[in-house]
Amino acid sequence: MEEGREGVAVFFCHCDGEVSGMVDVPAVMKYAATLPKVVIAEEHEHLCSKEGIARLKEVLGDAKVDRVVMAACSPRTHGDIFLSALESVGINEYLVEFANLREQCAWVHEDRMEATDKAKDLVRMAVFRAMELEPLEKIKLSIIPSALVIGGGVAGMEAALNIVSKGFNAFLVERGEEIGGRVRKLSTTFPTISCGIPCRHDCPDCEFTPKIEEIYAAGNIEVLTSAEVVEVEGRIGDYKVKVRTGVEEEKELNMGTVIIATGSRTFDPGRIPEYGYEFEDVITSEEIELMYLKSRKGGGGAKLLRPSDGRTPKRVDFIQCVGSRSLKPGSNPYCSITCCLYAIGHARAIKEMYPDTEVYIHYTNIQAPYRGFEEYYNETSSLGIKFVRGAVEKVEEQGGQLFIGYEDADLQRTEETTTELVVLSVGQEPSDGTAKLSEMFRIERDIDDFFMEVNPRVVAEDKTGVFIAGCALGPKNIRYAVADGRAAAENAIRLMEQGFVEVEPVIPEVDEDKCIRCGVCESLCRYGGINVGEEEAAEVIAALCRGCGLCVASCPAKALQMKYYSDDQLRILLKTAFSIPVAEAEHERG
Ligand code: SF4
Ligand code: SF4
Ligand code: SF4
Question: Mutation test of ligand 2: which of 509, 511, 513, 515 has the most ligand atoms closer than 8 Å to its C-beta?
Fold first, then answer.
């Protein structure tokens, strides 16, 4: 910043009438000009437009101000655009304050005078806070140009191949004995993933075997199977990861970026006793796949045979939403997305192989959300497959005979009948290692325990360099898991190509004289962002701290202050909210 710059510029945006329709912007601007240290008060119809940004730069180009108040919309919407424009004319972004005149004023008032008065309050508070701010610099961290991909399913394979296609090294760590993931256990994929060869089956073999071969053929992917991440240290751009590769063997990797693509596991239907999974002729959708794969390998194509007697069943009942979309204990509240289409695909295949076999699908809603799926479902209804809307109440076996009791909501009755095979459409759950990996990499999990993605609209930056792909984020079909793998790889590549990352300096500052070394801050921090030595005062690890403020609020000695949100910088908002100091306000309250 140039020497001699001091003062505040306030920019007002009409937002094409969104603000000025309710707030008298010229009146607020006139008021702002009377506030101490305000040397510029400017308005524009549409500040975030090309013309608005150009005007902003033009006004500030020669101005002797070092601080800016943007009296416009929420910084969540256009904050980044304004900050980069301001930075280009030498304004430190941590000397900028926003007065949200749109969401927090114009949009929530119905009276123009009240809205205008409130806008004056917001602008006054912002100007005084701007005067309290201190310039800060982003923290620059280097990125090691290699990526660790955890999980060798379709998403992980796609991610690894994309990473190496840009010339970076990748390590692919797979817990199972071979890569390929759950797709290897599928005999067919429905309905849109096709290898293009006009054969009857969309065999995953045709689709994914070449990918597996590509992985092994790529010189710069090291594949570690029967391997597991056991320890992680470090920060974005520089992780030291210990991988157990055998009973006694461990390998230490130094990685710049990480992609977690650990997939999901299938729901254990034994947790819902009424569906009778203990009986031999009650199987899961996964077990049908294994049966087909086995019979194919034996020659003569896929065969559906009852496990109890090896006979082709005359009637098959599919039960949908097993373990999904239910608030019952042991089940999950979310839809597993893939199982409807999966069951429909199986039902069609059975009808095609055995036209005399009766096929029923018991469902509450059919979910066919992806392109082409609705048509596939509609077509199925005309093939003689019976869709029964309603809950299945029980599956029982008596005297070697299977019975199914169910509701038919359309006919408003319940039925109990014999059947020969029951197929449970089991849902998906977070894979077994999810909790451990989330702790090691300090990645949040959502309410259903899947990994949670950083939402760029909520969190301005990712401070981990760890990207999640595929079913590790929640149930999804193959096509979307592959797309996820590609997207995660793109994020990792962007970081590695840049070679460094700049992280927020909005972190706590320690007053060493006040720190009593109690360790409260360290024990509360979930990200390893602060350390307290035996003898030394607390120390903030800038690369790990996420600026959540928990330690600041909890420090018993008041030894921590959050940069950009220090007590003084927040107190000034209260002091100026009503134009009277806090002490007086407290006195008045008694
Ligand atoms: S996809 Fe279908 S079967 Fe699976 S949970 Fe959702 S609604 Fe139920
Ligand atoms: S909580 Fe406060 S006083 Fe205690 S160690 Fe941390 S910074 Fe020091
Ligand atoms: S601000 Fe949050 S993330 Fe940073 S050290 Fe304190 S508790 Fe940890």
Answer: 515
